[in-house]
Amino acid sequence: MTSISEAMLEQTPRSARLLLWGMALFILLAILWANWAELDEISRGDGEIIPSRQLQVVQNLEGGIVSEILVKEGDLVERGQVLLRIDDTRFSSSFNENRVRQYELLAKQIRLQAESDGTEFEVPGDFPEAYRHQLERERTLYRARAQELRTTLAITERQLEQRRQELREARSKIDQIQSSYNLLLKELNIMQPLVGEGVISEVEYIRLQRQVNDMKGDLAGIRLSIPRIEAAISEHESRLSEGELQFRTRARGNSTKSVASWPACRNQCRACRTGSPAPRCGLRSRERSRS
């Protein structure tokens, strides 16, 4: 060290020398600490955490055009809260037609049930007033069909009574002809010996014999008609007893077909699903459209 440097050091204040030695000691301690100490690295940045097991996909079963989104990205939603609405314009017409068809079938079912049970047509109190004309139409049809059934049964009853009257007349005629035939036969037997004695002419005897034969043929013809008349009576009795039964059975069958053809009201379900609710509580993420 030169004399000039020694002179400058001697002139340096004591506080400056202490600060210099302190800085050198701090640097030495920092080097030693960095050599043995473990440091945690911390980095900051913007990101999005999406837990795959907790992610819920919300989609509408029917699909369509989104008319309204009710929440924003990042909003906290509750379970069942409607997130978005689907435009139901294309479902409105089909929905209304299907609803009319639904109540039309319901009114028809009420009529068919009354016809199959043989009861009066009763209007349910909870039937919508807007569709009462369907009930009135079915009530009119119920009355017309009931009148048709009564007319058909009345005609069958008259036909049955006519056949029964024919049977009574045939049996009465058999008795009458049988009695006349017996008298003619007795008369013929009496005249037979008189013809041989010449008391009665043979022509008169032949005429009487012809009458006996004609009456015998009439009697046989009437007796043969008895089974035919009795068969007709049985047929009309069966038709009378089965007429109402067939009417009830036919109504019951139509009722079953009506229930089987009851529409599933798919458009009604679609209209109810125009809103997409949240399946659970959570944060709303971004929406994705799918064609």
Automatic annotation (TrEMBL):
Cell compartments where the protein resides: Membrane
Keyword Lipid metabolism in annotation: no
UniProt feature coiled coil, ranges: 132-187
Record field: transmembrane: 18-36
Protein name per Swiss-Prot or TrEMBL: Biotin/lipoyl-binding protein
AprE-like long alpha-helical hairpin domain ranges (all copies): 93-253
Record-linked InterPro entries: HH_AprE-like, MFP
Key words, A-Z: Coiled coil, Membrane, Transmembrane, Transmembrane helix
Record's bilayer topology term: Single-pass membrane protein
Organism: Marinobacterium aestuariivivens
One Pfam family linked to the record: HH_AprE
